[in-house]
Fold this sequence. Notes:
It is built from eleven helices and 13 strands.
Amino acid sequence: MAEGMAFEEAGGAVCKDESPEPEEGDDANTDYIYHDIESRFCTKLPKALHNRDNILQSKDSCKDSHRDSKAASGPLKKRKHRSKRKHRDAAGGFRSELGPYAHEKQMPSWLRNMLEEGAKVTVSNQIQPDGTLHRVEFVANETSHLIPVLAQLCELDETVEQAFLCSPAARHVFKMPKEGGFCGYRNIQMLVSYIQDTRADGYEQFPGRLPTILRLQDLIEQAWDLGFNSTAQIETGGIKGTRKYIGTSEAQALFLSLGIECTAGAFGTTQDTSAHDALLDDILAYFHQGCSTNNQRITQTELPPVYLQHEGHSLTIVGFEIHKSGSANLLVFDPMFKTSPAIERLIGNNHIRSQDPGRVIKAYRRGPGYLQKHKEFEILK
Length: 381
């Protein structure tokens, strides 16, 4: 099974005094040394991203009231006058957070063809416990059954005091070689994988395999046409058929337009608390509300994964760990990276053994050392 995590280009950034970035496409086939994972994140994005449509208010429900209309209330309506988001104008200016292809009218035909075709799919027949044959599809850039592996590694790691994980239905989706900066779309696909596999509200909107990046672009444009976060359509000049970067606003618009309820939140540094502490507190509360009891050391919930955006990159939160030292960290699926062979070999094993489980799971942890580099976060759950 070809599964993994792939490197995603970050927008508007030049990382100084760091090792050179790999050539595009090389990263998707490289098994990285994960102890150096934090040094790979040095991205700067204009603050405009974090106020997009100003709708990401902590703990506010994102329902039909967020449609752009005369009836729209609060921050969404005001956002139209306060936007710092730069868009193409008569002088040719553009929002740098749209990425290096912000002025591009259409992506290259070779890339469009690759995205239309999608990742390689292989089919095999597997013998079930009852002796019957079951036809199973394997998609080259998707990893299934990874949450139970992470849960077992948390159990084996003696430094972990308590851990919470999302539904095992969540798949890890990553970029294909040479596709470029589509991390926002890949994270949307991870949320959709949960919706599909659990038959959650709105699953009928996503028949068959995961929607392609091109299909997601169509759905986002349709959401804008319906009035959901529609100022972004003007500010971006449209995204259909382009390589322009997207973020939380577009993900939110897509789900709301399909009748799939979601809650958005934004966290910034204040005099009282840091942005990463506020984020960690909110995610811990999220997982607590999905537990019948908090007494278990390792809890695998049925909660959906959470979309996370910070400067220059987005990830999918799939768990939360509290360590005996008192520190805490997120567990994430990152569309930048391939799954390491060490993790790949553990999938389907219900009795994992590891002499150093902390080292094996480290690639999925994002703790204070990583999070404190960022002053603002957005989530969608």
